[in-house]
Amino acid sequence: MTTDLSPAPHKHGLVNRLYHGNTTFGLIQRKKRFYAISMVLVIICLSSMISRGFNLGVEFKGGNIFTVAAPSTVDVKATRDFIQGQGVPDAIVQTVKTTTGETKIRVETEPLSEEERTKVGDALAKRFNADPNTQLDIKSVGASWGEQVTKKALQGLLVFLIFVIAYISIRFEPKMAAAAIIALVHDLILAAGIYSLTYFVITPSTVIAFLTVLGYSLYDTIVVFDKVQENTKGIERQGNSTYSEAAELALNETFMRS
């Protein structure tokens, strides 16, 4: 009986070759191209945010939320047209799934009077053959409450950025700290820009998602810069590679992980 002592196939894979510098993706040498692409994307996102703005959910601007049980094959567009036929323009209509697998229609509208709410609720219940007492839920969100949610969301985002910037400034040398902060703002602009361009509805969950994106951005930056510091430590005395080459190696060593 013989034993196969040959190395596992993954040892010679792309990730292994990248880590040991046997192969590289030319990232730093193409930095001008990446800067140009990034600048174009940032300009597009900022232009959209300034000119088009955001599609804020009812939690931020106030209004009404109607939730009614519906068939799994419900037509969202037809439902939106139906709501407009009830004299309620610009309604946001979505399908949602409950934990039990039940399909429901969620309709968000501008603030309505009590009479208008009753009219829309009864019309939805009748359209989907739902019991208005048990299968229809109507919630009203005041504009003042929405303003408080908006204020708290912005405060949370601002506090996060302040603490992160303070940490980065202490953790890295000035040039690296500046680059990390720019990368953080860059990722925030792109994430917010996607919501502006697509006009996705922004809810409190969206703010949590933004913070998550910033967390990943910060994590990637720290991982890459730690490797850059490790590779460039004492590079002046060694003289066997330039700073750009050492930084390129660090990027490639963490490329697949990032």
Spatially, the strands of the biggest sheet line up as 3-4-2-5
Number of strands: 6
Amino- and carboxy-terminal Cα gap: 43 Å
Strand proportion: 5-15%
Keywords:
single chain; two-stranded parallel sheet; alpha+beta; 4-stranded antiparallel sheet; 258 residues
Task: Walk me through what this model shows.
- The protein has 258 residues and is of the alpha+beta class.
- The protein is 60% helix and 12% strand.
- It is built from 10 helices and 6 strands, in the order H-H-E-H-E-H-E-E-H-E-H-H-E-H-H-H.
- It has helices at residues 14-19, 31-51, 58-61, 76-85, 114-127, 143-171, 174-198, 204-232, 235-238, 243-255; strands at residues 55-56, 63-69, 92-97, 103-109, 136-141, 201-202.
- The protein has a 4-stranded antiparallel β-sheet with strand order 3-4-2-5.
- Helix 2 packs across helix 7, helix 7 packs antiparallel against helix 8 and helix 8 crosses helix 10 (243-255).
- It is elongated.
- The two termini are 43 Å apart.
- Residues 1-10 have low confidence and may be disordered.
